[in-house]
Design brief:
The complex is a heterodimer of chains A (about 375) and B (about 160). In chain A, about 40% of the residues lie in helices and about 15% in strands. In chain A, α4 packs parallel to α10 and α5 runs parallel beside α6. With about 375 residues, chain A is of the alpha/beta class. Chain A has 2 domains: about 140 residues, Alpha-Beta Complex (Aspartate Aminotransferase, domain 1); about 220 residues, Aspartate Aminotransferase, domain 2 (3-Layer(aba) Sandwich). The termini of chain A are far apart. Chain A has a 7-stranded mixed beta sheet, sandwiched between helices. Chain A is globular. Chain B is an alpha+beta fold and about 160 residues long. Chain B has 2 domains: about 40 residues, Arc Repressor Mutant, subunit A; about 90 residues, Alpha-Beta Plaits. Helices cover about 30% and strands about 20% of the residues of chain B. In chain B, the strands form 2 sheets. Chain B has a 4-stranded antiparallel beta sheet with strand order 2-3-1-4. Chain B has a two-stranded antiparallel sheet with strand order 5-6. In chain B, α2 packs across α3. Chain B is extended. Classes of the chains: A alpha/beta (about 375), B alpha+beta (about 160). At the A-B interface, α2, α11 and α13 of A face α2 of B.
Chain lengths: ~375, ~160
């Protein structure tokens, strides 16, 4: 029989997290700090709205772009919170999670051979999505001494005449790094000078603990070069509803909508109705969750300090990224041994790019009680090394 | 800072001063001093536990009693409240707006015991003009904590 598979897909490496997940799922009594989703339930008023939509029989397709009211609310929200204005009719697309937005934005923009700069460590899906379009991923390893922020010099050095798109994944999964206004201004200069586009993945925008998140789309000259990816999963604890959105200049958004129309039709109708309520009435819920995450973040950093685990202070998302280089073990070995000896699951930094070697991703989407227990075990583990 | 401390221990009074300090980015000494001061000033009046007694062998009943009273000249409702709260059977007393004046939560071994307490102690008080006793059948939520809907998280253990 002929090989049924495409050469492209065979070349794509499976997610490094998967392997780890398989081991952890065999250990029912393990405590996991490996989760990338909020521990909060979706706020009840949002769930209630979803239930109400079902009761009303709102079970049909929506337009390809998504409910007009939702798109209007999203555009209002982005203007209100991040001073970036997009037109709800032509420049906003409701997607199945932020992940779909990433995929179709890259497919809409890349031709084979186009280079995409991917600052790492980062979320696992940019790389395969670029490879699927036959684009060329250019790994840009970020540095711990810069708190894993992207600098203009690093970006400049990675640019070639084939570079077309820069991924900007901040606040960052897995490092928790953020880009402040001054950081973004430097980077924006380089982007404009080289006539590049930015895919700004702002899914963790609301989870910023220093100042409010700054969207690069709000900087002068950047709006028409920026595709903003965001969604409801992290800010409103709505991961399972699978609802995200993309804000992009009309010329790009039209083509993204075309792919979305053929591949997806429309995002889940029920989720869209619930999301209208979330974005209109969810500020208080966000405030409550951000406060809780911030307390846990402080708690973790203080505990690391006490046990002598080196970690820069991350100001975004719900991850800390401590260094384990002092123990002379690889991230994989450290994580595996920690799991086997103490039954605590963390994710090795290498799951998010080679430059994550020597680091661990620890999620604080857990209660203080769970964190306390897990940290006690980590401390015990370190003492035995 | 007081409000931030209070909000934390309102949800979990088992947090130590050290935990709270770490969570708020303050020093342990500062938090301990604030806690002590608030206890002294009776901002913090006590620490309690939310218990689902239905899961134990202990049997008792809780009743909410509506009390209609005639306020006393010059003393309003406070004097009456002061008398009611002295009874150890009384768990909680609220002054209410609306159709009655006090909501009194009473705990007792049996329905009969509670009913007799109302008949013998509360109803005969001079200022009391009427009572209505409602027994609690099942507790679903208390102090913001769901009692009957505790479910295990279905989150996967490791996700990107």
């Amino acid at each position: 029989m002929r090989n049924p598979l495409s050469e492209t897909i065979i070349q794509i490496k499976p997610s490094g997290i998967r392997k780890f997940f398989d081991i952890v799922s065999e250990m029912p009594d393990a405590i996991s700090l490996g989760v990338g989703e909020p521990d909060f339930d979706t706020p009840w008023h949002v769930r209630d709205e979803g239930i109400y939509a079902l009761e009303k029989g709102r079970t049909f397709y929506t337009s390809n772009s998504g409910l007009k009211e939702l798109r209007e609310e999203i555009c209002k929200y982005y203007t209100r919170k991040f001073q970036a204005s997009y037109d709800p009719i032509h420049e906003c697309l409701i997607t199945v999670g932020g992940s779909e937005g990433i995929d179709i934005a890259l497919r809409a923009m890349l031709d084979p051979g186009d280079e995409v700069i991917i600052p790492e460590p980062c979320y696992v899906s940019y790389l395969p999505c670029v490879e699927l379009t036959h684009g060329v991923p250019v790994h840009l390893p970020l540095k711990a001494e810069n708190e894993f922020r992207l600098t203009a010099e690093e970006l400049e050095a990675a640019i070639t005449d084939k570079t077309k798109v820069v991924i900007l994944p901040f606040p960052n999964n897995p490092t928790g790094a953020i880009m402040e206004r001054s950081d973004l201004e430097q980077v924006a200069k380089v982007i404009i000078e080289h006539d590049l586009y930015v895919l700004s993945d702002e899914i963790y925008a609301e989870l910023s603990y220093k100042d409010k998140h700054v969207s690069i789309a709000s900087l002068p000259g950047m709006r028409d070069r920026t595709i903003v990816i965001n969604g409801f999963s992290k800010a409103y604890a709505m991961t399972g509803w699978r609802l995200g959105y993309a804000l992009a200049p009309q010329i790009i958004c039209e083509q993204m909508t075309k792919i979305h129309q053929f591949a997806i039709m429309c995002a889940p109708t029920n989720s869209q109705y619930a999301a209208i309520d979330a974005i209109k009435n969810g500020d208080k819920d966000i405030e409550m969750m951000v406060q809780a995450y911030d307390q846990r973040r402080h708690f973790l950093l203080q505990s690391f300090k006490e046990m002598g685990l080196e970690c820069f202070e991350p100001y975004g998302a719900f991850y800390v990224f401590p260094s384990i280089k002092q123990f002379g073990m690889s991230s994989d070995d450290f994580a595996l041994e920690l799991l086997q000896k103490e039954k605590v699951a963390v994710v090795p930094g290498t799951a998010f790019g080679d430059c994550g070697e020597g680091f661990l991703r620890i999620s604080y989407a857990y209660s203080i009680e769970e964190l306390k227990e897990a940290l006690g075990r980590i401390r015990h583990f370190i003492e035995t090394l | 800072m007081r409000t931030r401390i209070l909000k934390l221990i309102e949800e979990d009074c088992k947090l130590t001063a050290r935990d709270i300090a770490a969570m708020l980015g303050e020093s342990e000494e500062t938090v301990a001093a604030e806690l002590a001061a608030m206890e002294k000033e009776h901002v913090i009046c006590g620490y309690t536990t939310i218990i689902d007694w239905d899961k134990t062998d202990e049997e008792f009943v809780t009743a909410i009693i509506e009390l209609r009273v005639t306020p006393q000249r010059g003393e309003g409702f406070d004097k009456i409240a002061d008398r009611i709260i002295n009874y150890p059977e009384v768990d909680t007393v609220y002054l209410m707006s609306g159709g009655y004046d006090f909501a009194v939560i009473v705990k007792g071994k049996t329905m009969k015991e509670v009913a007799l307490f109302v008949a013998n102690k509360l109803a005969p008080m001079e200022a009391v003009v009427g009572t209505a006793t409602h027994f609690v059948l099942k507790k679903h939520k208390e102090h913001g904590v769901g009692i009957t809907n505790i479910t295990k998280s279905e989150r996967l253990a490791v996700m990107p």
